[in-house]
Amino acid sequence: MSHPLFEKHRTTLDSALNAIRTRGYWSAYPEMPSPKIYGETAQADGKAAYDAQLGREFALDQPGRGGAVKTECSPYGIALDVSYPKCEAQALIAAGIAAMPGWQAIGAEGRAGVCLEILDRLNKRSFEIATAVMMTTGQGWMMAFQAGGPHAQDRGLEAVAHAFKEQAEVPAEAIWEKPQGKNPPLVMKKHFEVVGRGVALVIGCGTFPTWNTYPGLFAALATGNAVIVKPHPNAILPAAISVRIAREVFAAAGLDPNLVTLFVTDAPAETQALAQHPAVASIDFTGGNVFGEWLYAHCRDKQIYAELAGVNNIVIDGTDSYKGMLKNLAFTLALYSGQMCTTTQAIFVPAAGIDTPEGKVPFDQVAADLGAAIDKFLADPAVATAVLGAIQSPDTLARIEQASRGGFGGEVVLASKKIEHPEFPQAEVRTPVLLKCDAVSESSWMEERFGPIAFVVKVADTNAAIALSERVVCERGALTVGLYTMQQSVIDAMTAATWRSKVALSINLTGGVFVNQSAAYSDYHGTGGNPAANASYADSAFVANRFRVVQRRYHV
Amino acid sequence: MSHPLFEKHRTTLDSALNAIRTRGYWSAYPEMPSPKIYGETAQADGKAAYDAQLGREFALDQPGRGGAVKTECSPYGIALDVSYPKCEAQALIAAGIAAMPGWQAIGAEGRAGVCLEILDRLNKRSFEIATAVMMTTGQGWMMAFQAGGPHAQDRGLEAVAHAFKEQAEVPAEAIWEKPQGKNPPLVMKKHFEVVGRGVALVIGCGTFPTWNTYPGLFAALATGNAVIVKPHPNAILPAAISVRIAREVFAAAGLDPNLVTLFVTDAPAETQALAQHPAVASIDFTGGNVFGEWLYAHCRDKQIYAELAGVNNIVIDGTDSYKGMLKNLAFTLALYSGQMCTTTQAIFVPAAGIDTPEGKVPFDQVAADLGAAIDKFLADPAVATAVLGAIQSPDTLARIEQASRGGFGGEVVLASKKIEHPEFPQAEVRTPVLLKCDAVSESSWMEERFGPIAFVVKVADTNAAIALSERVVCERGALTVGLYTMQQSVIDAMTAATWRSKVALSINLTGGVFVNQSAAYSDYHGTGGNPAANASYADSAFVANRFRVVQRRYHV
């Protein structure tokens, strides 16, 4: 007997399984916030649901309830005033452990079905969640809807598909019959039980509280584990809504809702204590290197899936579409004020300039033209506020100031401007800073400067640029690199360099695809092979070690 | 165009792929050392090939050649006097890195084909390798042939099959076409390259120099990595022959033979330096906890697959075949003098005795009967020497002495005896020590006492035995546990306990299968979920993180 939720969502799961095998375009959750798709009242309903949660305590019936926590501060300068129940870590762990046997018992199919039901309900609540994402992270509305809603859900489903595929390879039982020559064969019956590793901890980041949380959450859930979600103190609401929806689905399916719980704190020491708890078997983390390195050093006995800092970069050798390239790069640097883990920070340009069909464009001209392209793209305040969103953290605001003052070295090509947001007067909206410097000024550009801060870096020539890109990726990490060239030999050399440094390469993007975008089911987000991330969304390795197979055997 | 070696071995690979999915009995390499299968002169040829290597330098043309190393001392008391070329670690690493691009270029199919060719040639050399295994490890001939030859080869093929399956899930390329409403779709071509993580280090153990080395060796190779094999100083020859055969296959296939090299040393500091080398990406290790814990602590940035110490145990509640149980246990405890990582150390027996169709058998009687069964089984010196083999290390000899003197506590039920080996007068052959003690004497029995040392442990009752088994597995680790009972409720309780402690369970073995045996393709060796091993032979998790996928994309 299949689980009814597996039957209900089987077609979607099959499509996702096909998508991760073929890696063409596919999506389960429409990315357009269209009333035709989501319902005529979806946007208003979502906004109302979001509004109804402001200024009060978030209802979440979890064990170990102590006080309440209120830490969120909107980059749009509005008051959220949501307080969240603070629960004892030990109580959440104990509840998660108690919930796991029932979760194990329904098997991989049942777990996949329940996870898809959660994702389906998350999708129906996309407007509410997107508003929460927008208001807590500073993302513009369209990005908050797409990346915070359907794209995050697609990444969650992708993880479920990988998890299901790996578990489905393990037969429930087997008859093992070994011939013994003229004697009767040895015959054994064997059972193979898929067992979750233990309680999983998923630590979210402040910029993408769903997109970077759902992969680990659903990978851990689908493989049989209970999950404690620990959101960033400034982006709790999207995670809290997601957790509550998951708990509702569990309860409706006759399962223990404590399979997913929310742990809120703004004290790193409390998160560290939870991470080190002996019952925590895996940790998914997106965030800075300091905490990430602490996890690597202090949680050695746990499976850690971490996405940390990096220095994404682009090599420009030449282009047959100079304007298209500049527009493409301008959008990449402007989108969400460069607060994406995939945004380019260093753009390597040969000292002698780049090749175009119209001839060489000198280094300084490339830098100036890119600055002008950014400026032009953001000239319309309506476009600017929609694309830039607001600056998520005071640290990033400070970095922008520092960069503008020349604090990181380099020469300012384009200064950052503060833009007034017509709807949110207190919003911290900033345009990107573009700097230029020489490659040898490594202290300027070869460290992650998170936010809208990019460097046009002068290199000796294209070969030096490719070598430098490889070294930066190997030493500092990167989730994305790009290349512009008209030479196949340059593509080949850069391709080989990315094989060594293990980073995804986008070549000659001059249209509607951007180096900082990755598409679920098709693009691997991170390779897991350089310091920017020790795992990839989403591949076999992201799921295969989250469960173990425990066998028993006896003669029949 | 498929690689010719992939075509040559495709049927075998397909059968292995089917076997790991269905997990019934299958083997690619016949386990009987029969002249009909291996050839009328195979045994003599193998012995001659082995003999020809004694008393001289082992021919191995590797880079970075310095001096020579001669460390092996046979447990059978004969002189091997083989010296091995000592090569600089840095030279082997550099050679491995240089060899990897060509290995990457032939793809997953090519690598699988070449690996199967290596395994095929290893199989044809089984007699030679088995003799080397026997003489270096002290195994009896039949075990040396089976575990050191075909069974090890099966474990290697199993790893290749898993590696191939995971890589085959990654398409080489895809067309990604995203609709854009009324506008033309966004179309990209994407390439997905499987890239090995880097140089792999495989550190062997002194007791199973091929069986515990081939899984890591072939998993790392098949996923695109170069491998440095570092054998135990006392069991180099079987690994050296295997490495040389692999190098011959690479050369014959037009590949760089430095894809596999041998690093010999008896200085742990040299192995540690190699393990910490930045270019070493993964480490497979079988051995003691001290070195294993050192690896965990000092090689955090590397993938580590480690099999360490454990306290394998059996719960006896009752049996419907008392004599069958005793015979089965006697064989388990005697085989290779208990020098298997899967041998039982603690046997939990209720204070009130065990149930049999003839009534209760008291605790002391069970212990005495088991001692008598071991004694009877080993009464014939020909059987004894064939089954026991010789004691591999002086440490184990010392432990047997200590156990016999009561140094570990407990009461001696059966003392160890020294047996003369008719063929090898200097061989260190010992029968097992059987002790009995109370469960509370944890310092006696709850630590690995590697070798032929077992404890019959008195527990309050069956429930206490199951709980104790679970705790021991969780705290000290185990690769195997067993259960004897006539009650389904006891089976159910023990099954649930093993799900929590994550250990393989064998139930009511009274015939020709033993708790310390695991069959390739069917039995997972280790679960990777308790301290005895952080990985399993062989599952998806054993291979999926040994390679990474590096993509590139561009518009078409």
- The CATH H-level superfamily of the largest domain in chain A is Aldehyde Dehydrogenase, Chain A, domain 1
Number of helices of chain A: 20
Number of β-strand runs of chain A: 21
Q: What is the third-level CATH name, the topology of the largest domain in chain A?
A: Aldehyde Dehydrogenase, Chain A, domain 1
Question: Which structural class matches the secondary elements of chain A?
Answer: alpha/beta
Q: Going across the major beta sheet of chain A, what is the strand order?
A: 14-17-18-11-10-19-20
- Radius of gyration of chain A equals 25 Å
What oligomeric state best describes the polypeptide chains here?
A: homodimer
Shape of chain A: globular
**Unreliable stretches covering 5 or more consecutive residues of chain A:** none
Q: What distance separates the N and C termini of chain A?
A: 25 Å
At the first level of CATH, the class of the largest domain in chain A is: Alpha Beta
Range of strand content of chain A: 15-25%
Q: What is the largest interface, and how many residues per chain?
A: A-B, 68 and 68 residues
